[in-house]
Structure formats: structure tokens, C-alpha cells
Amino acid sequence: MKSCLPLEDSQELLLSSIKPLLSETITLEEAPGRVLAADIFAPHDLPPYPQAALDGFAIPREGKRGSPLSVKRILGAGDLPGHPLGPGEAAGVLTGGHIPPGTAAVVRQEDAMVKDGILTIDKDLTVGENIRDQGEDFPAGAVIARRGTRITPGLSAVLAAFGFQEISVFRRPRVAIVNLGKEIAPHQATPLPGQVRDSNGPLLAALTRRTGGQVVAIHYARTKTEKQIGELLMEADVVLTIGGTASGNNDPGHHFIERVGGRPLFAGYQVKPGSHTSAGILDGRIILMLSGNPVPCAVGYHLLAAPVLRALQGLNPYLHRIPAVATNSFPKRGGPRRFLLGYALGSHQGWRVAVLPFQKPSNLHSLIDYNCLIDLPAGHPPLQLGDEVKIILLENA
Amino acid sequence: MKSCLPLEDSQELLLSSIKPLLSETITLEEAPGRVLAADIFAPHDLPPYPQAALDGFAIPREGKRGSPLSVKRILGAGDLPGHPLGPGEAAGVLTGGHIPPGTAAVVRQEDAMVKDGILTIDKDLTVGENIRDQGEDFPAGAVIARRGTRITPGLSAVLAAFGFQEISVFRRPRVAIVNLGKEIAPHQATPLPGQVRDSNGPLLAALTRRTGGQVVAIHYARTKTEKQIGELLMEADVVLTIGGTASGNNDPGHHFIERVGGRPLFAGYQVKPGSHTSAGILDGRIILMLSGNPVPCAVGYHLLAAPVLRALQGLNPYLHRIPAVATNSFPKRGGPRRFLLGYALGSHQGWRVAVLPFQKPSNLHSLIDYNCLIDLPAGHPPLQLGDEVKIILLENA
């Protein structure tokens, strides 16, 4: 087991231990937000045939303003075009409907007049005007989207247009959350003297769902033996423990991983807050031991748990790390590399970031509004207003 | 009924016709993503009493490096402190646990040595060090969050810490989607000649869910009479119709609103694409008639439907409209105010935006990736690389 790794090494150690979960098939309605498990190609041209772009008349190349054409047919919804346009012939067509072979353009209903079966055009037209070419949106065989793409509302619309009924996506990671502190009671309970309501469990559950995982359970060491917890973990792909990473009396310590039968990957990393965070692996399941303090618990989630959950879904594990200008100050100097909870706003001059107040590890206050992590290097000086820093924009920022 | 209103006038006309929906009570687990229907105040101090910030020893003001103190008690999890620290006295304390009155600081276990009940401190301490003051995170009565706040994972953690079990949130808007085009078949069906698979229904359903609404049904005029549709609409807060807004043969036209018993609010607005978009109201329900073409259908959703859905949830109806620099060009000139589907990226120098290819109203292609609308004013010149434009960043951009 390695101790006190740099952040990137601990992330790589975790990610090298996993691969994307198996795929599963879901309906199109369930698809938005899920991640494609296979490339998707256009099964046919879209549009599948040349279409009228509006309701009007298909006209031949010789059709022009003022010269009369004879309307010999009106194509209704679903009518096939049959024979080409004859000389001097026009045909009524509908938006999205077929046009006869030999159509040079479609004239809008409002730009033409029909009297006794004779069409007079009121407007100059260019060849191809108001025609949707076959395959102009997607030619057959074109890539629609690649494996590893998160399905947007718009992509689901494209899949619907092609008639895809079942979509192959990566299974959602199952996450079990375990409070190891014996003093932690479920937030629904009225705490006895010395007990503290669980706030990290609801935090990690909500973050997990936002990253695309599903929460199978929140357990409490207070009411379960380690053997029972070990058995319950077998239902999960990822186990997030809370507390028990400091060295005090009251903590089971990071040997928990070994006691539940796992192999430790690292103990501690060079990040503040949350330097005691540990990780292990058990039958392909990742165990991450996060701090029991709210701020380092959140930071550990974003730096270690979220990349694992994204990688398990076949996504790029890492979020963008971008420059931003600080709009306030932070008095402490490094020490180790430090992450602060921040609020970032994209402005005309680039990203601005405010260090949120209440950055003590035990304070919940800054959790309400944060949308980024501010990444201060080891040995950093106190942060001044106007300094450029690197930030990691979080999902839904 | 008004015709061809400017965008802002049409938005205001819609928003002045509605108010936030009634509130409902949900559990904390269901809360993330929902919108608070009432201000929330801290019901008590948090921390509720002065706490040790780590496992160690509570020491009095005279405790300093090298001078021995007598350890007379060890406070276990949940132990109340009772009497103050006596002269020359220290007490064992646990992270988050009580400290005795008269405690000046807490020394970390690793920075002290205890032998035969005598504590020797190995480190200089300042007054207040490693003590969490009562109420330092939230004093009793402090605002935790205001009505109209969307609940973040972190806010749900704060609510859990205070023991809030039931959260009052605005009800999610119920949205019915109706395809008025007789040629539109459900995307699950194999289309007959002349039929087209519904892609706008899945698009609007996914967008509605992302904005916080719930989709009650997707209906098809093909299989239902207007009377039947009118009855079904009574289940919804908002009705989005697709198609039937152009003037062609095949379209029921915007008189649909009157035929189902509603009052038209406006017919058409000064926006391209989608200028035929209409709106009405029926027993407090908003009816929005969006284009049957995918690009104007999406644009109409973002400009008109999303503000309505946000306002019904008690949120600010409008998203930020910010400057960005175009990274490519767009050849057409205005005409009316025009919205393009774009892909925006926040950079060091501010926002950059690419006009996505395939901007014909009938093309689905640009729907896959867009994350913003590019807002070009009426009469705009062709867009050039490097031009500054205004963009509206969409949710989850």
C-alpha cells in the first residue's frame, strides 16, 4: 500500500483498477443523461428521400416568374411521386412530403397562384430552393454519436427520428455509503446526547445521483457489525465510507479495508483538506474512505469518487481545470496542495471565482453554493484579490 | 390577440398570466433539484455547543508548551462536560464532542503526551485553537436559503444536519405534449408511407424534465379528436403543441386554441426560426404552439416554454444572456431577430461560441451538441469569425 500519494497518482491508481461497467439496454425515454455504450451510425439517409421544405408546388427547371405551368397532380400526405414532372408541369406538394423526380425547386403556396389548374409563379426561385436533399441531415452510415457520449435531449430526438427503440448504455454505478463514526445517526432520527445527525450521507447520495450513479444504501456502523457491512458492500460497485480516517480513539481507522477483505490501494494523499483519505479494492469494487468532516468529504468526492463514477460509465473521468481570477482573498498559505470550495462565474473577461466563506473542514455553510474547486498548489502564498488560480468547474456548475 | 410581438413582449405576456404552482411537501431524499417554496432559517445554533475540532485535550488559558496539566476526566462520545476546567486541569475530548467550560484551546493528541495522568503539551497554542464555537456555522435564526432556491446536494446536507424531514417545494409543472400534424406517428411505430416518426415529442419531453417539469403524456392528433385532446389537456399545467403553426393545407392552424376553448395570447413573434409560434391560455393553463420543424421547436422551447416552466416552479424565469466571441461564421443576414444553435465554451479570454452546422429548420443534426442560443439582432449582417455576439447559456451547458 502506498502512502501520501500526489493527487494525480492516487487518481491514476484508482482508475487503473477499473473499467467501464457492462452495458444494458434501455428505452429511448430513459436515455437522456445516460452514456452510450456503442457508436451509433445512421441506418439510412435522413431525409430518406428528397422532400418539399414547405407546402407549395414542385416546379421544373423551366418554371419561372410569370410563366404558367399546368398543375396535373396534388401529392397528399404519404403519396408517392411516381413519374417525373413532365414539360411545363407543376405538382402540389406538402412539407416533408415527396417531390416528383425532375423537380428543380418548390414554390411556396403564398408565392404562386392557381386558377383553373394553371399555376403562375410570383417570385424568382433558385435551383434547389425549398428542397430538402436526401441525406442532407445524415447520410446513411454517418456517425450519429460515439460510445462514451452522454445522451442529450437533442440526441434522443435524433435517435427517435431514426426509430431506435432500445439504446445500449453503460450500467449506472451502484454506490453504497457507510458512516463509520459510531456517533453518527441517520438524519431522520432524533439524535441522543453525543450523537450527530448524518449530513454527509445525504450529501454523497445527492452528488452520486448527479454524477449518474445510483445509491443502493446508506449504512451506519452504529447499528451494523463490520461483517454485516462487508456483506452489504457486495451489492455495490463503489463503496464510500465516511469518517474513520483520522487517528483518534473513536475511529476504526483505514484498516477497515483489510478487515472487510479488501486490498488497500493507498492511505492518504497530498491534498488538504482530507489528507487522510484512503482507498482500496475488493473483488473489483472500489472502496473510498472519505473524511467525516463535510468540506473534505465533498472535496474527496469530487477529486476521487466522481472520476471513478464517470469512468465506470464510460465517460472521460476528469472535468476541465481552467484559469480564473479570484474576486476575494484567502489568508492561509500552503502546506500541501489545497482545494477550496468556490463559486465561479463566466464573465466577459473570463472566469471569476469567489472563495466561499466558512472553509473550516467542519463547516457546512460553503456547501450550499459551491460550484467549483479552487486548486492552490503546495506552498502557495495567501490568495489575494486579482490573483489567477486554477479551478475545476463541477457538473451542473 | 396580438400578432408578431417582440420576443420580450411575448415572454412578459406569458409570464404575467401565471404564478408559481402550489407547494407540496417532499422528503429530504427527493429534495435535490427541487425549488424551495419557503425561506428556511436555522432552528438552532450549529454547532449547538462549543465542540472540539479534533481528538485531544481541552486545556485552560494557563496551559502552554512544557507546563504540565492534570488530566482528571476523559469525555467520551456523548458525555456532557459538567463543571468547568479547574486550575491546572486538562480533559480528554473527542472530535465534535463537548468541551468543558473554561476551555481555552484543544491540543491535538499527537501534540501532547500523557503519563500517569499528567499531560505535557508539545506545541504552542493560541486561544480558541481547535475549538468550534457554538453557532459559528449557522447561528439560530440565520437564513439558510430563500424561497425560490434550487436545492443543491450541499443544501440538502445542511437541511439534514438540522433534522429537516419534510421540505416544502413548489410542485413540478405537469406538461402535456401534443403533435398536431396528422402525418406524425409515435417514434415507436413503424411509419406508414407518408408518415414521419415523432422526434420533437422526445425532444420536448427530455427538455421539460431537465427544466424540472414532469411529462404527463405525448398525444397525437392522428389518433385523437380535438375534443379528446381538449379533455386530456385538463390534466396539465402547460400544453406544448408541435406543428400546425404554418399556414399550409395540412395544418390545423393557431385557431386550435379557440377550438379547445382557450383564449389566444399572441399569434407569432418577431423571432426566426419559429415566427409562427403562438400561445394561449385555458383555465390558467398555458398553451404554447411550437413549430413542427426541429430547430424552431427547440428554440421556441428555450425562449418561451422554459421561462414558463421555471416561473411555475418559483425560479427566475430567465437565463443569463452574456457576450461571447464567434469562432466561425454564418452567412445569412437579418431579417428578424434570429437565434442560432451554438456550442459555447468558457475560456481564459471569456466565452467563445461556435455556430453549429446544419441550421436549416428541418435539420436535426445541430440538436445533438448545442448548449446555447446565439441571439442575433434584427437586421444583423452576416456573422464573421471574431464578432462579438450575445448568447443564452442553457441549463446543463
UniProtKB/TrEMBL annotation, chains A, B:
Q: EC number(s) of the enzyme?
A: 2.10.1.1
GO process terms (BP): Mo-molybdopterin cofactor biosynthetic process
Q: Which UniProt keywords apply?
A: Magnesium, Metal-binding, Molybdenum, Molybdenum cofactor biosynthesis, Transferase
Q: What class of enzyme is it?
A: transferase
Which cofactors, if any, are listed as required? Mg(2+)
| Function summary | Catalyzes the insertion of molybdate into adenylated molybdopterin with the concomitant release of AMP.
What name has this protein been given in UniProt? Molybdopterin molybdenumtransferase
Origin species:
Thermacetogenium phaeum (strain ATCC BAA-254 / DSM 26808 / PB)
Its gene name is moeA5
